[in-house]
Amino acid sequence: MLRSRTVLGWLFGALVLVLSTGAEAEDPPGRILVGFSQDTLANDWRAAQVNDLKRELARHPNVELVVTDGKGSTAQQIRDIEDLVARKVDVLVTSPRDGTAMTPVVSGAYRAGIPVVLLTRRIDSQDYTTFISPDDAAIGRESARHLAAVLKGHGDVLMLEGVRTATTAQLRTRGFLDELKAHPGLRLVAVKTANYLRNDAIRAMEEVFREGLHFDAIFSQSDSMASGARIALRGAGRDPKDVVIVGIDYIAEAREAIRSGEESASFTYPTCAAEAAQVVMEIAAGRDVPRYIAVPSQKITRANVERVKPIF
User: Fold this and answer.
1) How far apart are the first and last CA of the chain?
2) Does CATH number 3.40.390.10 belong to domain 136-268?
3) In the predicted model, is pLDDT for residue 25 greater than 70?
4) CATH architecture, domain 2-134+271-296
């Protein structure tokens, strides 16, 4: 169900782009300055997103990409966007750490005439050109369903939450909690914020151990946090294979963990850089672009882990 819903949205967006450009569309003339305000480069998925976008835009010699690192600070990311606006970027790409706090600066850029491409994270207004993302709420729901199936409807679940102010984490949490209502035998014992980072996940798990919380399963909103959780489990003398772990992203570490039985499932979460690069070039050429591009996500388990390559 997850993949079928998102595939339709992605196909629609891709069809619009293909129809509007044609297979032989040429780069628009002149220099194109693209600004990418990234939340943090300390997270490997976000660093991969930047590297993927660099690679995609490098195919266009007239494009200059400027990347800023918010270093996990909303205030810094706001300043970064203000600086990119001052540099008169032709297109602003961003993944806001805090969708509410950053709405004014993103909205201001859009209203000043700068096209805005939001990657995976939303703001609180409609002041953007295109939003590109997998369906985070659907992934959260499917994660809960998977845990319910493996635990046979009964068990205690720990949630490792990403960046609480980011819409990715908010939607994943909402979808997960909505689905839990259909499984009364599953109990959410705690939600620990770990900011999509391994070290923060280790600290969160150490806190769980100090509190003496019992859990049979972990819903980790990223595979980086799942990796940190496994490190902490081993440090506490607990075998990760005895815990049902579900992650998101499907990075190489997750693939190995699924192979070894230390992770039950992951959900692919593409960086969306290829879609973003195409949208940037369409905007630069003055063509219409889809308002929303839904990128497919797929559940990965031992049944298909050998057939699906990791995101990175």
Assistant:
1) 25
2) no
3) no
4) 3-Layer(aba) Sandwich (3.40)
